[in-house]
Amino acid sequence: MMGIPKVPRSFTPHTVQYFEYLGVDDYDKPSFAEPVTVEHVRFDESLQSSSNLTEQTRQFSAVCFVYRDTSTPFLDDFTLRSKLVFNGNEYIIKNDVKTSHPFKNEVWSHELEVL
């Protein structure tokens, strides 16, 4: 059976901390699990800017790529509203685009869109 190419570790030089979102506490504040350190991911940051006649806004966003063959540990699921910490900056997971392995019934990668 044909395999899919592995992502080289040199393409995934970053490490993030993942804090799974658990819900809200008694004071209506978000509650998170203890962090899981995920190594060998790719974290690409960007700056979005928009303006109108009265104001200009800037928002930092990023995409974190997590691959089954490279990232450790590989998590099959990431919970929306969870927190990622990269280089001391906190981001919230807004979307998880999963890519399925073409020959197995498993997730091959995650594309985590964060703000």
Describe this structure in words.
This protein is mostly beta strands. It has a single domain (11-114), classed as Thrombin, subunit H (Beta Barrel), CATH 2.40.10. 0% of the residues lie in helices and 57% in strands. The chain contains no helices and 8 strands. The chain has strands at residues 14-19, 21-24, 30-32, 36-51, 56-67, 83-86, 89-100, 107-114. The strands form 2 sheets. A 6-stranded antiparallel beta barrel has the order 1-4-5-8-7-6. It has a two-stranded antiparallel sheet with strand order 2-3. It is globular and about 55 Å long. The termini are far apart. The mean pLDDT is 92.
Concise description?
The chain has 115 residues and is an all-beta fold. It has strands at 14-19, 21-24, 30-32, 36-51, 56-67, 83-86, 89-100, 107-114. The chain has a single domain (11-114), classed as Thrombin, subunit H.
Question: Could you name the ranges where pLDDT drops below 50 across 5 or more consecutive residues?
Answer: none
Radius of gyration: 16 Å
Residue-averaged pLDDT: 92
Query: Which sheet architecture does the biggest sheet show?
Result: 6 strands, antiparallel, barrel
Supply the helix-strand structural class: mainly beta
Oligomeric state as shown: single chain
Give the domain tally.
1
At the fold tier of CATH, the topology name is Thrombin, subunit H
Helicity level: under 10%
Strand/helix succession:
EEEEEEEE
Shape from CA axes?
globular
Q: List the total number of helices.
A: 0
The span between the termini is 39 Å
Q: What is the CATH architecture term? A: Beta Barrel
Strand content: over 45%
The count of strands amounts to 8
CATH class membership:
Mainly Beta
Strand order of the largest sheet: 1-4-5-8-7-6
